Amino acid sequence: MSGDIDIGPDGLGRCSWAASTAELREYHDSEWGLPVTDDNGLFERICLEAFQCGLSWLTVLRKREAFQQSFAGFEIAAVAKFDDADIARLLAEPGIVRNRAKIVASIENARRSQEVIAELGSLAELIWPYTPEATAGPDSYAEIATVTPESRALAQELKRRGFRFLGPTTVCALMQACGLINAHLAGCHARERVDAAREDALSRLT
User: Fold this and answer.
1) Is 121 helix (H, G, I), strand (E, B) or coil?
2) CA-to-CA distance for 116 and 114, rounded, in angstroms?
3) Angle at CA of residue 158, ends 154 and 160, nearest 5°
4) Does the N terminus or the C terminus of the chain have fewer Cβ atoms within 10 A?
5) Which residue, among 147, 174, 142, has the nearest Cα to 4 in the 3D structure?
6) 86-94 long-range Cβ contacts below 8 angstroms, 24+ apart
């Protein structure tokens, strides 16, 4: 078995990045890679992945509750109405990442999300068509691409529509987090469950 798989005290194999803390293990086991198709759920992941740029995911994960409280539960309609007073409020909030450019980008991305929903009916109708073909589980992290043709294409489309802080690498991470790409390693107990959930989501969306 790959050295990138950790066998936990429960006897289950996991991607080793999830073994260092309880927060990462819980996120890995219960959320990462499982399909996200609802508008506010996708918007939350868009925001958090953008805030994560240049930081560790654990840092963002530990601030997630504060992010949710500060950004109105990531309700798109609410965040789209944020104004200069809200920007000042967020810049003064110690529980989140206080980066003005990323805060402004999140508000703008809410407004662009509204435009997508008005045009296509949902964010999923924009994002999920970029799902790549399923592949066998990678044996190590070295086999997992950080940029794919699909993430490049989706990033380009998001940029065309005015979304910010969503380059190909960030979009690839978004696609992994939301279930478009199953990046769980072969030998990880979650991989098969994520594969099945992904196929179910695709069947419902087509």
Assistant:
1) coil
2) 5
3) 115
4) C
5) 142
6) 93/66
- Catalytic residues, which ones? 27, 49, 57
Structure tokens at 42: 């996708």
Q: Which residues of 107-132 are buried (b: 16+ CB within 10 A; e: fewer)?
A: bbbbebbbebbeeeebbbebbbbbbe
Provide DSSP, 31-46: TTTS---SHHHHHHHH
β-bridge partners, 5: 15
The model carries a pTM of 0.96
Question: How close are the terminal C-alpha atoms of the chain, in Å?
Answer: 36
15: three-class secondary structure by DSSP:
strand
Rounded Cα distance between 82 and 80, Å, is 6
Domains, the chain:
9-205 (1.10.340.30)
Listed in sequence order, the residues at least 6 apart from 190 whose beta carbon sits closer than 8 Å to its beta carbon are 14, 15, 28, 29, 32, 33, 184
